[in-house]
Amino acid sequence: MINPTMPTAESLRPRTMRTARPAPGDRCSMADLLQLMGVPVNDHHLAGSIPVVVRRVASGQALYHEGADALSIYFVRTGTIKTSRTAEDGYEQVLGFLGRGEVVGFDALCSGHHPTAAVALEDSTLYALPVQDLFGLGQRLPELDRALHLAVSSQLMRRDDLAELMAPVAAEVRLARFLVQVSRKMAAVGQSPSRFHLRMSRREIARYLGVAHETVSRSFGALAQMGCVHADNREVEILNLERLRAFARSTRRQHDDAPPVGTAASLHLPRVVAGGATTQALHQ
Amino acid sequence: MINPTMPTAESLRPRTMRTARPAPGDRCSMADLLQLMGVPVNDHHLAGSIPVVVRRVASGQALYHEGADALSIYFVRTGTIKTSRTAEDGYEQVLGFLGRGEVVGFDALCSGHHPTAAVALEDSTLYALPVQDLFGLGQRLPELDRALHLAVSSQLMRRDDLAELMAPVAAEVRLARFLVQVSRKMAAVGQSPSRFHLRMSRREIARYLGVAHETVSRSFGALAQMGCVHADNREVEILNLERLRAFARSTRRQHDDAPPVGTAASLHLPRVVAGGATTQALHQ
DNA sequence: CGATCGTTTGACGGTGCTCAATCACCGTGG
DNA sequence: CCACGGTGATTGAGCACCGTCAAACGATCG
User: Fold this and answer.
1) What is the C-alpha to C-alpha distance for residues A173 and A171, in angstroms, rounded to an integer?
2) Alpha carbon of A74 to those of A21, A26, A59, A154: distances in Å?
3) Is B6 on the interface with A (CB under 8 A)?
4) Considering only CB atoms, which chain A residues are within 8 Å of B164?
5) DSSP code per residue over A176-212
6) Which residues in chain B come in under a pLDDT of 50?
7) Residue ranges of chain A with pLDDT lower than 70?
8) Whole-prediction pTM value?
9) With contacts defined as CB-CB under 8 Å, which chain B residues touch A142?
10) Which residue, A31, B123, B210, B228, could crosslink B244 as a Cys pair with Cβ 3.0–4.6 Å?
11) In a 10 Å sphere around its CB, with 0-12 CB exposed, 13-18 middle and 19+ buried, how is residue A276 labelled?
């Protein structure tokens, strides 16, 4: 394993685990939630007096299924959550990997149903806010309202991440961008940005990047050969972050309207070109 | 999007081109904004007494540039807004086309800067809410707070649309999905879902779908040959919506982990069979 | 140890990107 | 009225990235 900096590092193994149950010793007040969200609290007494449900989800279990009624929205306290949609024919499109502090399920608010599914990639705990209480709590506790807006705004920005990853660039560049994003997230929660343990399988990465899982393997190999990273199964070490970022920036060549953006910046990095077939049956 | 249960169908009809000039007589109060968002208003007097700035943007002009300070967030009243990001090398990734009732610029809230650019594709008008007033207004006027949450939730759902379009499926299917989305949006604002005028160029569609613009042209041709649509430049007529939807649903076959769901689904998807989907494309 | 799953590597074929040329539709000016 | 550029849409030819299929490996677990 790696980086035992986080609490509850004890239970990483996907054990049978005790069934979902509000842990007895868990502190679960609104004050904790607001602290997690990084919002300063004025009325500590009020915030501390409002209880918040903590929900536990075992590795591989679903927080909610696609199409389920929207009962609550969640905030990741520990662990990792994967959100995805599944097409009629069974193809699963991974939409995101959510970590500590991120909102889950907010997109269900407008329709009353979850348009996506959410499953835990490891044993996880989340704060749960019933949607029926949401509005009232926001009025009673302005800090919560503010935190909610900020968190959702962040979540909207993550759409850009997804677009960035699925953009029509070479598969190796997609993987590089993905690793940069992971690295950034690790740093954001105070863990090592250069050595980490991926919580998701190659297949899930592939479904996130929109490529075949064999291609993910090959791309890992390519990045390793470039000296950017060293990957052993899910253990990843970033050897040269600067080079990785530079490579991640490379896009495809464009030939229509190229605004002469100052100096030609593309000095190194071979293969900028991308072509190829993005079609048919992604091997799952 | 807008809650379909709401009445006010009368005012949805675009009253021709009254959006001609800068609004001397335009009513621009919070009540109008809330009506646009489809939220019932309790305190009409209060809502009507709060003025709201209406901003006009000429076709081709920017609402805000990428990286600009987040001064306001906007709600489209009339027209169409394109949001996009531009990579260092000049490649523009279109993130969405926003129409009546949709929020623009909310993703800037968490960082204070706009991570994307927003450009008008036609002469447009938008309600503008200064970010510094946002929280105060939300507390004063609970309806606004609620409307905001719903609108942002919708916006989060649109991320799924983007993922759906950029998913690794054939270019023709992407275009079909795009047209279905446009059709649905047209219906949502009370216009014809089968005949409409696209507000964006082929290039912009291409950068939205993540393909080359030549491929968009070819895909239009393919859909036309299938008898689904008839396209003349930006004028599009959907001839067979059912067929188009069916085609848009087709993804790819998967044989790896097929969900062993009860009875074998006898439904044969009109799938794009391997081996030259474009050229053979059945008859017609 | 055998079974199952995830990962890796190889070979082959196809789709879609690149590079071009052409056409249609403008607004301008000769 | 028509030549002249400019923009956007369409069409064609060639090539290579990546999806498919296949098989070997490795890891975990019963």
Assistant:
1) 5
2) 16, 16, 17, 15
3) no
4) 85, 93
5) HHHHHHHHHHHHHTTS-SSEEE-SS-HHHHHHHHTS-
6) 1-24, 253-284
7) 1-27, 252-284
8) 0.83
9) 135, 139
10) B228
11) exposed
